[in-house]
Design a protein that fits this description.
The structure holds two protein chains of two kinds. By secondary structure, chain A is mostly helical. Chain A contains 22 helices and eight strands. A two-stranded antiparallel sheet of chain A has the order 1-2. In chain A, strand 7 and strand 8 form a beta hairpin. In chain A, helix 2 crosses helix 3. By secondary structure, chain B is mainly α. Chain B has one domain: Di-heme elbow motif domain (Multiheme cytochrome fold), CATH 1.10.3820.10. Chain B contains seven helices and no strands. The chains are: A mainly alpha, B mainly alpha. Chains A and B meet through helix 1, helix 13, helix 14 and strand 8 of A and helix 7 of B.
Chain lengths: ~475, ~170
């Protein structure tokens, strides 16, 4: 059929319009595909690892030097924990020591018992009265525990290694793949037998998953402790490795060891006393509910408790914890190395690193920030001294009363007050921030300690 | 006009009125400025003056404008975010039902977090998309590795003041 001109022009018009439409549609489709392609490429770029895999890491390597082959920057910083630097209330200076067969160390930290002789009376009848030194870096944790004179005056169990050595791999081995079984097997062993099963102080594997470097909790003590704590808060069957957020992990991995603890039962099971909460009073109440005591005081006969480094518990009462700051934010702050930003694995006092530990968030001069820290610590130290004196006065008065007549009713009450006052004072004494982690809480705890001590004295006078 | 039905005429007048008023409003409210990158456009509203001043004194003043941090760095995303914010800003300004002091919404916060990484990608690689997040490669040893490390870290939680620190 021959088309008339007008029809032909219409047909061509329609075709042309179709052409334009199809061109536009395909342009859109291609643009979309290109966008998809580039986004996929971008995701793949993001997934590449910014480190060179020299060795393949797995869950059996506890030697930090091997991990250090993949992560030389972090390993380098980790090794710097051998530096002994003193701060006003923390750290230590190296003190020369003549190495002997029993103790091969040539450098030790200063003795706190020499710095403050009251502590010998405070802990009279307990191993701490024999040897107690200023703290130093993670690098020394195993040797200092192995060679302290406290080992000579008492038989310590293998439980001690839970925190002072890299035990994750030894627990796996001892428990045939089950770290909890390994933990239970190592606890009752004599210390020096268990010591043969460990090789390193805290190591990379204790905090990091070797497959993907995620933070994880490896210590059974903490896993069980936090489960107990969460249960007391109404959260049942808390699984820290599955349920903690990333920021919480940055505190929990430190909380594996920087805690108050006791050894439960004849099997010496490491237990964190958090069944009633994390505050010093809750912990004291928990200890009272189980009837636990660490020793009988040699001067007064009171059944007393020793508090051990409760940084995690005290920190959680402070404003920084409340504001979501983690341990690692101040003690392992990010640093720039070359073109990368990594966590500083030289764990130490933030006062030695004010710029990176504090000034990211607190925009004041270093002098000002250190001054604020010093004010808090000086005030806490003053109250700590008052508490120490009060407890010792009570201790001696009880002893005096016992010499005269131990059957007086007030003696039992006074001893109970000493137990409370002593634990609370020791809580702050053993805590390594001199109050900084939660300054007002530290003051409250010391106030309670002083109060209990004076009430104890009153109990001896007013039956 | 002669052969137009009355309703068609009325419709035309109404549409014309709406278009005219709309065009005038667009000009009066400086609507065209919102298509630009000029920070002064964001400070069209009084409530933004403090932030504009703080930005002018801030550390990123010379390297980033409002859009560099508060809109995505891709064509479609940028205008979608502008459009969404534009609508909701107008809405809440009209009704007045927004909280004061104003706080960034979680979606806009996410946009800002991405902006940090857009410029500072290399340096934050190790702590952000480092070995922690996507594939784990060799050594799937530990069964206990939760998904928590794939949570992105928040830059502005610590680096609060780099944009506009309103004292």
């Amino acid at each position: 059929m021959v088309l008339r001109d007008r029809e032909r022009r219409t047909r061509r018009g329609v075709a042309a319009r179709w052409l334009v439409f199809v061109a536009a549609a395909s342009a859109l489709v291609v643009a979309g595909v290109a966008a998809l392609l580039t986004s996929i490429f971008q995701r793949q770029q993001e997934a590449r690892n910014p480190f060179y895999r020299v060795v393949a890491l797995n869950d059996t390597i506890d030697d930090p030097a091997v991990w250090g082959q993949n992560f030389p920057l972090q390993y380098d910083d980790y090794r710097r924990t051998v530096d002994q630097v003193r701060t006003r209330y923390g750290g230590s200076e190296g003190e020369p020591h003549s190495p002997g067969a029993a103790d091969p160390r040539s450098v030790v930290a200063q003795s706190r018992l020499q710095e403050d002789p009251r502590l010998r009376e405070f802990w009279a009848g307990y191993a701490f009265a024999t040897d107690f030194r200023e703290e130093r870096g993670h690098a020394y944790m195993l040797e200092d525990q192995e060679f302290t004179e406290r080992q000579k005056v008492t038989k310590q169990p293998g439980t001690c290694l839970h925190c002072h050595a890299s035990v994750y791999v030894p627990y796996q081995r001892l428990g045939n793949g089950d770290p909890i079984k390994g933990f239970e097997a190592m606890n009752p062993l004599p210390y020096f037998e268990a010591r043969k099963l460990v090789r390193h102080p805290v190591s990379c594997i204790d905090c990091h998953n070797p497959g993907n470097m995620q933070l994880r909790v490896t210590r059974p003590g903490f896993i069980e402790g936090i489960r107990l704590l969460k249960a007391s808060q109404g959260v049942a069957n808390y699984d820290v490795n599955a349920q903690a957020t990333r920021q919480e992990m940055r505190t929990f991995v430190c909380g594996q060891c920087h805690v108050e603890y006791y050894f439960k039962g004849p099997e010496k099971r490491l237990t964190y006393p958090w069944g009633k909460g994390l505050t010093a009073d809750s912990i004291l109440a928990f200890h009272d509910s189980t009837g636990h005591s660490d020793w009988t005081h040699a001067i007064s006969g009171a059944k007393v408790l020793k508090a051990q480094h409760p940084e995690f518990e005290l920190y959680n009462q402070g404003i920084h914890a409340r504001s979501g700051v983690a341990c690692a934010d101040c003690h392992m702050p990010y640093k720039r190395t070359g073109a990368m930003k990594i966590s500083d694995h030289h764990v130490r006092s933030p006062v030695l690193n004010v710029n990176r530990a504090c000034q990211t968030c607190h925009k004041w001069s270093e002098e000002e920030l250190v001054a604020r820290v010093t004010i808090i610590q000086d005030r806490t130290f003053e109250m700590r001294n008052m508490a120490l004196d009060a407890v010792l006065q009570l201790t001696h008065e009880i002893a005096e009363q016992v010499r005269r007549d131990s059957t007086v009713a007030g003696v039992r009450q006074a001893r109970d007050y000493q137990r409370k006052a002593q634990f609370l004072a020791d809580f702050i004494e053993a805590e390594n921030s001199m109050g900084f982690h939660a300054d007002q809480e530290a003051a409250r705890i010391l106030a309670k300690s002083i109060d209990y001590a004076r009430r104890g004295q009153m109990a001896l006078r007013i039956p | 006009m002669a052969r137009m039905r009355p309703w068609a005429l009325a419709a035309a007048i109404l549409i014309g009125t709406a278009a005219g008023l709309g065009a005038f409003t667009f000009g009066y409210a400086r609507g065209y400025s919102y298509l630009t990158n000029d920070p002064a456009a964001c400070a069209n509203c009084h409530i933004m003056w403090e932030h504009h001043d703080a930005w002018a004194k801030g550390s990123h003043h010379a390297v980033a404008t409002c859009n560099d941090c508060h809109t995505p760095h891709n064509l479609v995303g940028k205008y979608m975010v502008k459009a969404r914010n534009g609508f909701w800003h107008s809405f809440y300004f009209t009704t007045g039902t927004y909280p004061d002091p104003i706080r960034i919404t979680s979606r806009n916060h996410e946009v800002t977090e991405h902006a940090c990484r857009y410029c500072h990608a290399e340096i934050t690689e190790a702590i952000d998309h480092g070995p922690g997040t996507v594939s784990s490669g060799d050594g799937q040893a530990a069964a206990d590795g939760g998904g928590h490390s794939s949570e992105p870290i928040s830059c502005v939680r610590c680096h609060r003041y780099v944009g506009h620190w309103v004292r």
